[in-house]
Amino acid sequence: MAVTGDDVSLDQIVPISRDFALEEVSLDGEVYFLGSDVTVQLDTAELSLVFQLPFGSQTRTFLQEVARACPAFNPTALDPKFLWLSRYRRKEPEPEPPTPRAGTQPRAPGPGALELAEAGGSSFDESRPDGKGLLVDQSSWGQDKPENLLPRQNKSKSEITDMVRSSTITVSDKAHILSMQKFGLRDTIVKSHLMQKEEDYTYIQNFRFFVGTYNVNGQSPKECLQPWLSHGIQAPDVYCVGFQELDLSKEAFFFHDTPKEEEWFKAVSEGLHPDAKYAKVKLIRLVGIMLLLYVKQEHAAYISEVEAETVGTGIMGRMGNKGGVAIRFQFHNTSICVVNSHLAAHTEEYERRNQDYKDICSRMQFRQVDPSLPPLTISKHDVILWLGDLNYRIEELDVEKVKKLIEEKAFQTLYANDQLRAQVAAKAVFEGFNEGELTFQPTYKYDTGSDDWDTSDKCRAPAWCDRVLWKGKNITQLSYQSHMALKTSDHKPVSSVFDIGVRVVNEELYRKTLEEIVRSLDKMENDSIPSVSLSKREFCFQNVKYMQLQIESFTIRNGQVPCQFEFINKPDEESYCKQWLSANPSRGFLLPDSAIEIELELFVNKTTATKLNSGEDKIEDILVLHLDRGKDYFLSVSGNYLPSCFGSPIHTLCYMKEPILDLPLESIRELTLMQLQTEDDGSQLERPMDIPKELLMMVNYLYRNAIQQEDLFQQPGLRLEFEHIRDCLDTGMIDTLSASNHSIAEALLLFLESLPEPVICYSVYHNCLECSGNLTASKQVIATLPACHRNVFIYLMAFLQELLKNSAKNHLDGNILASIFGSLLLRNPAGHQKLEVAEKKKAQEFIHQFLCNSP
């Protein structure tokens, strides 16, 4: 898991004074590649420290700020005493500091102070346990958020900028510069022209990639992985190894931590090809979906711009039991993105799998080093390798027919009924991707520990769930196979070996191209004023609905002067637009006579719905598009929002006896702004309903139709069905409601999540945590809730108890329901997105005791 501010403590404070020095160093035997962590040595008169910082923009900014602080002192002035630091220093006696490193040159003093936070040590192992020489960067284990790194050579910002201007860059320097944050318009223009002229100074060289996927069904490694990873092949240049269902425990699902990450990492490391030495570039994990990237040691220096991201597509579009993880990187001059996904299960759920794929593509975004550039999506790469348990099944054939065709090795007949083939042909998913011929038998489902097909009660039909696809130029697939020798899981691992043509820089041609670009820039008039034209300046969004994206687009067309554009904040505002609006991209760079399309995306969610319901906010905004060294352009945004029960308070809905869309806007406004009363205040308002009718409709539907539904509240519904459910609730046309049980269940969870005041009010949140485990005290807390909130809580607990009575059919248990509903009914009033594990467990325990007892 990623380290947050709550995980660290202030250990030591080092003032930046005259004897302060901070520099990047390379440890003996350390393999360096762009994207690795930064090793830093700090020296003062009193101590010497060597430590590692995670690569990324935060580290780069930190080092730049420290360097900038150092020369700011007046040489004639006395060192400051840093008295303000005294209250932060340790009170206990400090150990004797180590002796300063000999020969360290003191830096110019600075006015700041460097604070060191300690979150546990990190190491860089130089060899595998078996002595085969795998280089492992353990500090990047887990879900770290990689970004690009400041060059490891000790070059200052000004030195690098001068190198661009003087055209005396070596190939390696060029790789560093193109991954650096830009220092001005001129450097951006240089990079843009270099990208355009890439074919002038690069050539194609083939590198061998191994791509493997394995659904391990929650098992620990029990056998050597060499038959899968390295048997019968030449040593690959790059390994991309993905796992699914790494850990199926509830702890991994709800608390995202698992010891199996390290177990499988070590198993893979020991199974890599014995004829080469590999460096781990990155590990990324989302619950049970894990992706590992290794490269041969000699290629490490040519890896740069490493980023990793995750997208959960499970219930409520967040849970990580399904979804994808991805690593993108630059290899020489070719951008590569590797995606590992685990899509929705069950034969009939192919539309849900399609939706998962589209969600991963749209939501997977990688930050760029240059903040003026928009995030990169999966499609914006030269090479895309997509692996994983895609879960597409074989349709229209019964189990015995499928097994018979497998015995006859009639794989083409089987493939004709493959769901993925049909969906790709319909251009529903993986448009433009390629897949090799399936010449191996289906990889799912086997009895664990054998090669026998599933003999359980469910008797799943065999299917090619585990796949490898690719997209891009200069890619040749050399093999595509399963590995029957491995029997740990109910899936068989799959591998594919590729030769991929990568663009490699010719140093001499690169220098010549760069010199030509710089000479042409010298001729440009730097004082020219940029000017653009906009295809549209007024945007109207009609009938905006809760959680239904609307997009309006326009084109920025540039004139004769290169320019940078950005949407900027208006005076006294924290963002360039309101929360329900975003521009994509919000900033960028345009060469002369070029154009770019900007999409304005409007999306109302739980954060913004309540004020739009009440009329405190409206679909109205002004965007300011600013040109660097140019003028500002003003864009007008308007529209209307259709109020929804989603985002409305419980007590408001209890007073709405008519569907919300049948009420006048002024009535909705008054009821939404009405204060929540603990008891009847004697007002003249008509007596409210005990619980919101919308909640009653959803729970009744589930009680009638889904009381025995397997995986209820764990499997996501379909987005189009949610929109239909929302419209039925907001218009009161419940008789027209037609949706799957999973979509209704997810709509119920989204409804509870959207409540501005949760079912258990914020005011008693901490009391609930304190009395979790004490049912009597917990009931007393519930009794203090306002009547409408208390009624909703009792009603939901009674429904969940009914579900548990049918656990033999629906496979639900109290822990699962308590975990899901605990985070919705009990929400931290501080609005923290990520709760501590102990806090999550207390909320779960509080709900669990009511599920096992009558409220």
Plain-language structure description:
Keywords: Cytoplasmic vesicle, Endosome, Hydrolase, Lipid metabolism, Membrane. The structure is a single chain. A hairpin with a 4-residue loop joins strand 28 (620-627) and strand 29 (632-641). The strands form 8 sheets. The chain has a 6-stranded mixed β-sheet. The chain starts with 8 loop residues before the first strand and ends with a helix. It is globular and about 85 Å long. The longest helix is centred in the last third of the chain and has 19 residues, at 787-805. The protein has 25 helices and 29 strands. It has 855 residues and is α+β, with helices and mostly antiparallel strands.
Measured distance between first and last alpha carbons: 36 Å
Strand order of the largest sheet: 10-11-9-8-20-19
Give the helix level as a range of percent: 25-40%
Strand count = 29
Q: What share of the residues does DSSP label as strand, in percent?
A: 15-25%
How does the helix and strand content classify structurally?
Answer: alpha+beta
How would the global form be characterised?
globular
Q: State the major sheet.
A: 6 strands, mixed
Summed up, the helix count is 25
Keywords: Cytoplasmic vesicle, Endosome, Hydrolase, Lipid metabolism, Membrane
EC number: 3.1.3.36
GO molecular function: inositol-1,4,5-trisphosphate 5-phosphatase activity; phosphatidylinositol-4,5-bisphosphate 5-phosphatase activity
Region (Disordered): 91-161
